[in-house]
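ASSEMBLY PREDICTION REQUEST
Request ID: AP-0331
Submitted by: J.K., bench scientist
Number of chains: two
Total residues: 786
Priority: normal
Notes: Please return the full assembly, not individual chains.
Input sequences:
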Amino acid sequence: MNNFVFHNPTKILFGRNTISSIGSETAQLGTRGLLVYGSGSIKKNGIYQQVTDSLKLANVEITDHGGVQSNPLLSQVRQGIAKVKEHNLDVIIAVGGGSVLDCAKAITAGSLVEHDVWKFFTGKKSLKKTLPLTTVLTLAASGSEMNSGMVITNEITQEKFGFGHRLLYPKTSILDPETTYSVPADYTAFGAVDAIAHVLEFYMTAENKNAPVQDRLMEGLIINAMESCEKCLTNPQGYQGRADLMWTATLALNGLTAAGLGRVGFPMHMIEHSLSALYNIPHGAGLSAIMPGWLKWKIQTDPQKTAQLGQRVFNIDTSDKTKQATQTIDALSQWFDKVNSPTSLSSFNIPETDIPHIAKNALALAKIWRLKEYSAEIIEKILRLCLEGGPEI
Amino acid sequence: MNNFVFHNPTKILFGRNTISSIGSETAQLGTRGLLVYGSGSIKKNGIYQQVTDSLKLANVEITDHGGVQSNPLLSQVRQGIAKVKEHNLDVIIAVGGGSVLDCAKAITAGSLVEHDVWKFFTGKKSLKKTLPLTTVLTLAASGSEMNSGMVITNEITQEKFGFGHRLLYPKTSILDPETTYSVPADYTAFGAVDAIAHVLEFYMTAENKNAPVQDRLMEGLIINAMESCEKCLTNPQGYQGRADLMWTATLALNGLTAAGLGRVGFPMHMIEHSLSALYNIPHGAGLSAIMPGWLKWKIQTDPQKTAQLGQRVFNIDTSDKTKQATQTIDALSQWFDKVNSPTSLSSFNIPETDIPHIAKNALALAKIWRLKEYSAEIIEKILRLCLEGGPEI
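STATUS: Completed
Returned structure:
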């Protein structure tokens, strides 16, 4: 195990009827809040009312910042920062999925500086302080509710970049599985895929290969993501499945899985972010289209870990590690198929001729994330493996 | 999944050469520290020197409080509190295993009140504030380094009682696996047994039986406790085994396994605490002597969960749940045997005639911990199942 620091200070309130605590939790941090949310579905399903009632009761004044979209845009972050500065706000409340939470995190970072917030993402400025953040989660997927990362899309430069810092942990996150009852089947599956991808990125890229404690944790989370997702698709208003998926997605990226692994990377996210930035594809859908191809590339030189995954998660038992790894990728693809999540770029009608352009876009992020082994040539090669009927390995 | 609050604010510094950070971590909290430690082995192996050097460098003055023994005594807690009050100390530093850490936690609780600290354990007073605590862990076992619980023995009343409160989380805990290289084989095994017991208590007693996310986490931890313990016994100075066991024991009781299970109990600890209090038996040794007997009692009415443990941890596969559960208990006992940890009361030469006395002692804790289903008669019955060649079930 490598040396590590683990310090996750986020307070989680999990369960039914917990949204009414958002007021008291927020009031401990500030009294003039920016309420960040998405397309407005929370106004239809009553969550907006519950949140604003609770905040009002706790004497937290609210300035609205709705309309945050999936793959949240830098312009919306900047607009939020402008509102905070104009009204001298002192706390941010995010109500939504990972996109809303990430937009809110970027606002907490950009509100206390004079320079543009994008400079944190390009590494030109370092973060020193943030406004406090509370959240009400309405989608099981990103893990943003209990971690210190965020991903924002710069629509001018067509860059979707991520940034992490210990000051970005939410102070309190409220996870009520009932808020996800209305999440449609496709986004439920994409959320589970996102959680699986978060686990697999670390599982596959860990600098320290000898990490049995983390391996068992991660394998368990992948099994739970799959089983709970299937429960949700069969019974969208079943509490058990929604609760299991929500907590699994949180644990999948709250720092625990990575603790002790040494350097880890996000190569699949690196490539997927380009798909989202260029084609505005849902993040989870893009990930499931990338994962099988990336794994095919990976096992060419290193089948061991994929084989272990196959044995422990998919019960694939054979002494030929390459065969076991190949069958594991097939099993994962079949599961994506089962939950109607794409398994190749072809699902989005992205032609092979676009590959150099996608690779060039991804390369910019590879450089920022210091994924040194990923040249444009290698990314193109991986993308070709992501095409339906792509080259045999 | 039941509703839960999860908020574990302890900062973990894990790995080699981390002890040198104890000074800077402590200096953020106070400048006049009480240094709590055990029998003095840390003076022989150089850890005391490392800790005091680091504290000195950070300008933290130290008052010594050594000599804390295994199954830490109330009198030693009171002596520590007296020193804090006499010298007006403002931070506590614990260097040792769970006993030292628990003694230090009790001192953090008792130093800011006028009444006797034992009143927290008997439920006569509630905790409002504590002094801050930093720790350097030297034994993988109790999980105290990242949780809010403590256990103290009142040597006058022969009561070993536990108490938990959110104010008792250490601020920072330093976990350097190399500090455990010198832990002898028996205490290494007892530590692993303690971690297994912590997981099994929740696994077996969860109010909410339908907790697949937690189940996978707990099953993984039990496998890791066993595998890493064996590595440590084979190669006591092997970093990998020591590191895996240390982090496993921490995760086994840091709140994660219990989150969402609803009400959980510590019935095996309830009984074991009486053994420790009456016979001063090492805690882990007492636990492994109790576990098989308690499980035999449990599966008489509820074999399901023990059967699942057998399937997922010991690969015991049969459709007869009672048979599967019985074989699971055998497999667990065999593993205790393998690492030379006791599997029955007979290992301590405790005669059957002592059973009523032990049960009476345990009953007092059963009442405080609200383990309502445990009458003296039932505890006696379980204890008889803990005798070698005890009654068949």
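REVIEWER COMMENTS: Strands of chain A lie at 4-6, 11-14, 32-37, 61-65, 91-96, 133-137, 149-154, 159-164, 172-175.
SIGN-OFF: pending second reviewer
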